[in-house]
Each structure stands twice: as C-alpha cells, then as structure tokens.
Amino acid sequence: MFSFLNGAILAAAATALIPLLIHLFSKRKMKVVEFSSLRYLQSMQKRQVRRIKIRQIFLLALRTMILLLAVMAFARPVTQSGYLGSHAGVSALIVLDVSSSMSQQTKDGPLFDAARREALEIIKNFGESDEVALMTFGAADNTIIGFGSPLRVGEALSEIEATDGSGSLSSATASALELFNSASNFNRELYLITDLQANSLPDTALNLANQIDESKGAFRIYLSNLQTKANSESDNLGITGIDFGGQLIEVGSEFTVGYSLQNYSGATKKNLIASLFIEDQRVAQSDFTLAGHEQKRLTFNYRLSHAGRTSARIEISNDDYAGDNVYYFSFYVPEVFNLLIVNNNAGGEYLRLALEPTTSGVRHWIVKQVNRNNLSGLALEAYDAVALVGIDQINRSESATLSRFVRKGGGVMYFPGPTLTADKFKAGLAEFTGLQMDEDITFNPPGSGFYTLAELDYSHIALQPFAGLFEDGLPKYQFYSIPKFDATNDSKVLARFSGGHPALIERRLGRGRIIIFAGMLRPDMSNFMAHSFFVPFAIRLAEYTASDLSNYDYRRFVGDVTSIPLPKRANPNDVLTLSTPDRQQVRIQPRAEAGAYQIDLPSFGEAGIYNLSSGPRVVESFAVNVNPQEGALQALSADEARRILGVELETLPARAEVASFLEQQRTGKELWRVLLWLAVLALLIETVVSGDWFNTGAKKDA
Prior knowledge:
CATH architecture of the largest domain: 3-Layer(aba) Sandwich
CATH class of the largest domain: Alpha Beta
Number of domains: 5
Structural class: alpha+beta
Number of strands: 37
Oligomer: single chain
Largest sheet: 8 strands, mixed
CATH topology of the largest domain: Rossmann fold
Distance between the termini: 47 Å
Shape: elongated
Number of helices: 13
Helix content: 10-25%
Strand order of the largest sheet: 19-18-20-21-27-26-25-23
Strand content: 25-35%
CATH superfamily of the largest domain: Class I glutamine amidotransferase (GATase) domain
C-alpha cells in the first residue's frame, strides 16, 4: 500500500490531461475530393491512416504516462515493505538536555560530555539523503537548528555546553513534535538525550501521543539512558536557600544570614567547610557535618562596615555536582536616608527630632519638612520615604503620585490628625492606604479615659527588635482620641489599641510599603511622644519604611523571565544597561504600564550578580542562582517518563550497537527514483517515436 510524503503535489496529476486536450483540439475535418486517377491509392491510404492513428494513440499514452510518473515521483510514494526502491529517508531530531544537572561528575567525567558523545554517535547513522535537526532545553536561550545536513548539527554540538539553567522535558518534547511538521522523510526519529531529572517533568500525566501524525510515516521516540551512566547515588550536598531572619541591615550593626543545607546522599558527610564571601573576600568560615539525607540551617554573623551595594555569596565544599555549592545574594544599605515630612500640624516636628536630633556630625537621616500645599509639586524620587503627618485629605492625582512612588520601592508613613473625618478620608486616603473609616473621630474630654497599645506583632521585621523589651507588658501609653480604621484584605495589622482597634497597619504596594500609625502625634491627643520608647519606635518604623527590602531578593533562578518596577533612582527616559556576571551588557528601555514604569528583564543565562545601571550609576543589583531542585539529582525511570509524557519510548542500546539497532527499526521503501527513471525512459521512447527518422522509416515501409 502506498503513502505519499508530499501528497499535496498529487494535485498536479491533472496536468496529465494536457496531452489529451491537445490531441482533441488539434483534430481537423478534411474535405474529401475524389480523383479518378488516385483511386488506386485508397487502399494504401487506409493502411497509413491506421498506422498514424496507432502511433498518435501511443504517443498520447506515453506523454500522459510521463507526466503522471513525474508527478508521482515528486509526491514521493513510499511502501511499508517490498523489494523495489531505495530505503526510505530519515528525518531525525536530537533533543539535548543542557540543564545544570547535566554538569554532574561521574566516574567517566562530566555527564554532559557523555551526552554529547551519544549525540555524535547517533549522527553517524545518517546518510546524505537524511535530514537532522537539533534542539536543546535547559538554557536561557535554547538552540534550535532546523532540519538539514547531519554535518551541520555535528559541528553545532561541539560548541554546546551544559548551563546553569533548569529545563522542562515535557515542553521540549511537545515543541519537538511540532517541529516534525516540517520534516520531509518517511522515517521520523526523535532522540531524547537527558538524565531524566524529576524536576524536568510535571507531576500530572500528559498525552503527547495525540500530536503524532502517523499518516506521514513511521514515527519513533528513542531515549538515551543517561541516568544509568550517572552515579547510582551521587555524592552531593547543596545550599537550598538563604534568609535574613527578618532583619534590617545597618552599617555598624551585626547581622545574621542563615543558609539551608541538604545532604542528598545516604552517607554522613563530615568536616565540610562553608564560607561567607563579601565582595569576593572570604570574611567568615565554619565547618559542619551532615548525616545522610539530613537538612540543616546554619548561620553566619557579620558586621557591615560600609554603606552602599554589597555583593555576597556562600560556598560549601566541592562534590559531584558544583551547581548548588554556591548561593549568591546582594543587599543595599544607603549611606543616609532622606525623609520628607509633609506636615499639617506640629506633630511632624516630633518625628523630625526623633530621626535627626542634630544637624551636625555623622547623620543617619536627612529630614526635610514642607507644608501641605507643596505636596503636588514635589519630586518624590529624591527621597527614600515620605511621612504624611496630620494630612486629612488628598486628591486622586496626589494619591496616584504617591502610589507610583511606593510601587517603585519608596515608603510612606501616615499619621492622622484631629481634622480627619470619614468623608475626607474616603476622598483619596482610603484608596491609597487600603483602609476604611466609617465614622468621624470621637474626641474624649480630659479625664474621660484613653486607649493604650495592647499588642504588637513582634514577628514582623519592623517590631522584632522590641521583642522581650517589655517583660511585664507594654506601658500604658495614653491615646485620648483615635481614628477607628478597618483593615482590608490587602493590609496587615501589626499592632492594636485596647478595644481591638488597629494601631499599626502595613500595606504592601509593588516594591514599597505604606505604614499607618493611628496614634496622633500631638500632645493634646497622646502622651506617647514623651516616653523613651517613642524615639526607637519612630526610628524603626522609618528605617523599615525607607529600606528597599526588594534588594534582599535572592529567589531569582537561572532561566527566569520577570519584570520589575523602575528603580526609584532611575529616569524613565533613560535606556538602562543590565550587566551580567560574564560582563555582557544588555540595553533595556523602560515601558509604561498602568501609570507606572516597568523593566522587562531578559532571561537570566547564568548564576551570579546582575547590575542594572542608569548612565554611570548602578540603580539596582540582584542575585540569580541555580534552581536548588537541580541538585536533587533524582532521576526517573524510562517507564515513569513514558507514563508522564504519554508516548512510547524506546531505550537506545550501548553506542557500539546503535547502528545495527536503528537499521532494524527503520522501515519503508521510497519509489521516487524508480518512477523518475521510468519517466525518463518513457521520455526517450516518446522522442524516438515522434522523431523524423521514425516517420521516414514508416514511409519506406509503405
């Protein structure tokens, strides 16, 4: 039974009607005029006409056959078996895993070297009429080489290396099946060369078999069993993450960085070394022991001596897989914090004195006060935080300006004043703070009672330093009148007054945060400012609000594609430059979205520290790490891969047996060469039959 690899061209078989049409339209009726002297020729004429008609019919059949044979040859008919024709061609696609786990060491060297040798051995089994394509997965920029010369793929393989990335075998397989739509041969072969790590396949089963079009020819998927070449139980320990334990990092103060370790092997590992590097200098070191399959959290303590951007990493001893032996992180500590106080009553001065008691000597804060009327014309990007003190109303334009400032990483503190009403609050402050206020402030006369701070959430970063400070409970700070706010779903209550009313509320917005303290900073409304606790409380709130905690973000992994808000010190009209760990530079243009500016970061190609610059200034630094899941080195079996992918997989034998194995698997005979030769033969016969010497011979016979 025939099948056609290029069946669409069969429509051209209609051209076989051309000789017939020419034959029919070229017939002309002849007028008969009888001559008595020519009657003796009639018998001879009948014989010649009969011969001419036979010759014309034969030529018509030959010409029709030539066209049909040519069209069928170009349609590439194939039989499943038989003795005629040449062996059916092969369209092969090699899918090569270049994810980080492929760099693990085995007894024969890096696993990726074995994978590359496997791919080169497979390429040796293709001829000039075959076509081969290549696809990698597990890199930020995967390589795809379309169907073409096997030699070209072999040359490309020599340039490919394992990466720091993670890959999805299921997505790669699905993309490979789509690529076969452009294949042109009967035998279609997909080669999966991978270590079959569990993190490369989903938990739920797929059904990729539906994407295979069996009408186009034989299709087989081969799996190179690399997991059998890896160590049966790899000697690997990895850093699975770090954390700062809810700290604000400050110059001159000791901070703690915690790091989590995992022993993936069953054997106990002793006398291993972990090191802390700050700006590529080893500043701390400790040894540790991990039992088989044990997880452990350890810490380093370090006192930061300088402000600015700091790049750091933690490293542990080498083992079979180096990808998870280092974990990068970075953080930013400003030399001074710039605070803008928008003041509508005397309360702003208490906040300024708490942060900036003097304007001489070493200053940790630079505070500027303005009145309410200047809010709309301020360049907020020059400040780390803004404090709204006693402001009872903002319009929607001011709310949008403040929201953009917060989304870019700025912080806003809000302290209500006695002129605040429910209607004024709803005009703009409600939308900005994410709170509700349904009733006006009730002003209690002196001696009629007061509210106190009843509870603080000491687990929060801003309040952690005060945990254990009040062993006998919080002092009875007196708040004579308070606005009764209601927190919404996107707000978090950090402290409450007696009676359960929210006292301290946080709302996260983009990269920044809004802190609302419901106590009014006026002596006629509270005695809180007269207590010693007010100064460290105000400093801590301001530090937390002004700190860009997104700079502690160390959970980006190689291969991630993400967008971030434009850093607050960057100009949206500038073209930013992203510097990668290997010193490449990528130009990025900020884009506007929903009233703010976003930066679309490219896919991270390797682990390390990335810097984002606006002109000569670095406006953002962040760390990118190898996904810790790569370090598990948990290989699936071929049967598990079959079940999840939902396709049949055939395991390739050892390299020495690959050639004979593939030869036995391939089927089909292509007949296009046979048909093309038949068309040529028919053309030669047609040339002979229609030639002049044939006509001359026919006349002599007559």
